[in-house]
């Protein structure tokens, strides 16, 4: 890369990008309006890999387009490095966008494709040639400089599209589901490559996806969205291990939900809930009203109960189905007075799976520290 001062590390307390109370509405055929974004406020730190995650129609792409300058909010403002850019046209913003479609010029060499943005900025040929070669080194494709796009694989074309967007050294790179056209194996490889490129280029990436694994694999922080609102913002570990509500818990990975009955009793640092599976102990959550809580636990948090120790959070279950995958067994069980189906993932290294057979009875423990209280 050309010599540049290394940007400060990602720090959400000193945001590079700030969305403040963004509202975006579109007219509907019946004369009304559809609110795509509803009072969204969000900070993104410098040099951060930040992901907007959610199902189709949640507003994530609309928010990205507002940052790019392709859409204008009805209310609210966007600042970049302290400057209000809400009304700036797209071509006046120091950001570039990578789309799902690579949009490489088929008649140009790879080097000319990468240097195209600098050429449009009026830079001399010597500069954009040198920069293109440096960026090709960054994406580990310098040997492809003289080739045409048709001579590259899908993964290589994706890296060239990324290189072209990075060549003008934008302050922020926006990525709108750029990996969705790749096959599964190549997508996983590109997740690792994209994170490396982001770190080595010292550029803020704002990434849009509906793929939870992509978000968890690459992101420094994730904003989970639904119906135009922010549901939770946090690190991948926070989002996965401490979801704030049922939507986030169910959208990120697999989750079992257990309904509660009545008001729980206090027991030290835990609360004791009556459930269809029996009494369950769960840690207190200050932000969740106990009388309205549901309980949640990830499939991999269950343990086979060997009969030793107390029977706290232990359930009797009938095995409905077993899928053995080597180090793990995915087990569907039925349990409770009103039969409830749960999904369990047991480690072969930590559990004796010999008795886990279809139609058999097993005892399972749900460790208190892994049960989550969630708002419904």
TrEMBL record:
The keyword Nucleotide-binding applies. Part of the ABC transporter complex PotABCD involved in spermidine/putrescine import. Responsible for energy coupling to the transport system. Gene3D superfamilies: 2.40.50.100, P-loop containing nucleotide triphosphate hydrolases. Its EC number is 7.6.2.11. It is an enzyme of class 7 (translocase). The keyword tRNA-binding does not apply. The gene is potA. It comes from Pelagibius litoralis. This is Spermidine/putrescine import ATP-binding protein PotA. PROSITE patterns: ABC_TRANSPORTER_1 (PS00211), ABC_TRANSPORTER_2 (PS50893). SMART domains: AAA (SM00382). GO terms for cellular component: ATP-binding cassette (ABC) transporter complex. Keywords: ATP-binding, Cell membrane, Membrane, Nucleotide-binding, Translocase, Transport. GO terms for biological process: putrescine transport. The lineage of its organism: Bacteria, Pseudomonadati, Pseudomonadota, Alphaproteobacteria, Rhodospirillales. InterPro entries: AAA+_ATPase (IPR003593), ABC_SmlMolc_Importer (IPR050093), ABC_transporter-like_ATP-bd (IPR003439), ABC_transporter-like_CS (IPR017871), Mo/tungstate-bd_C_term_dom (IPR008995), P-loop_NTPase (IPR027417), PotA-like (IPR005893), Transp-assoc_OB_typ2 (IPR013611). Belongs to the ABC transporter superfamily. Spermidine/putrescine importer (TC 3.A.1.11.1) family. The complex is composed of two ATP-binding proteins (PotA), two transmembrane proteins (PotB and PotC) and a solute-binding protein (PotD). It catalyses: ATP + H2O + polyamine-[polyamine-binding protein]Side 1 = ADP + phosphate + polyamineSide 2 + [polyamine-binding protein]Side 1. GO terms for molecular function: ABC-type polyamine transporter activity; ATP binding; ATP hydrolysis activity. Residues 17-252 form the ABC transporter domain.
